[in-house]
Amino acid sequence: MSSLQFLSQRVSFPKVEAPGPSTEQLVKLFEAAGRAPDHMQLKPWRFMVIQGEARAEFGKLMVRAKEATAEIDETKRARLYNNAFRAPTIIIAITVFKPHEKVPEVEQVLSTGAAVQNMLLAAEMMGLGGMWRTGNMMFEPTMREGLAVADNETIAGAIYLGTPVGKRKSIKALDLDKFVSYWRG
């Protein structure tokens, strides 16, 4: 498959299992992230890897973060906790805002997104499945505190990685007429 075919067929894998990425594969993922578009080479991101027993603590943190904003029943509590075990490896992507006169914060957020996309592409190239998940809980003070997210940072999301389960889902091609126009001045 050509690189262009690969890009046009990339999909998220919501269901993954062990094994997750090896140490060597993680290094490759982070190297790929480092090649994202990055105005002035600020590297406005950092990544936190959650694996093994740390997932249990992350599950507890997700429950605490939700409970800080809403009452939840035991079923919801268990579901939130178990979300930490959706994948053998979770990578929390964090935008680190770095003041710069030529690089507004929005560019730094976009650069983090590009870094995450590079990681997802690299993961799939290595035969791994990945899913980028966010949600309001990622922006809650309890979550930020639990993950030691500084005041000049924001969580871009959680990347769940492992061995894909099931068949690759088929996604309909984009109707380019709906998304592309040509400006004529």
What does this structure look like?
- The chain has 185 residues and is an alpha+beta fold.
- It has a domain at 10-50 and 87-166: NADH Oxidase (3-Layer(aba) Sandwich), CATH 3.40.109.10.
- The protein contains seven helices and five strands.
- Strands 1, 2, 3, 4 and 5 form a five-stranded antiparallel β-sheet that branches.
- This is Putative NAD(P)H nitroreductase.
- InterPro entries: NAD(P)H_nitroreductase, Nitroreductase, Nitroreductase-like, YdjA-like.
- Pfam families: Nitroreductase.
- Residues 19-162 form the Nitroreductase domain.
- Its EC number is 1.-.-.-.
Note the beta-strand portion.
15-25%
Radius of gyration: 18 Å
Going by CATH, the architecture of the domain at 10-50 and 87-166 would be 3-Layer(aba) Sandwich
Which fold name corresponds to the CATH topology of the domain at 10-50 and 87-166? NADH Oxidase
- Write the element-wise H/E pattern from the N-terminal end onward: HEHEHHEHEHEH
Q: Give the CATH class of the domain at 10-50 and 87-166.
A: Alpha Beta
Largest sheet: 5 strands, antiparallel
- CATH-level-4 superfamily name of the domain at 10-50 and 87-166: NADH Oxidase
Query: Helix segment count?
Result: 7
SS content category: alpha+beta
> Which stretches are low in confidence, meaning pLDDT under 50 for 5 or more residues running?
none
* Topology, number of strands: 5
For the record, give the distance between the C-alpha atoms at the N and C termini, rounded to a whole number. 39 Å
The best one-word shape is globular
> What's the pLDDT, averaged over the residues?
95
Q: What is the share of helical residues?
A: 25-40%
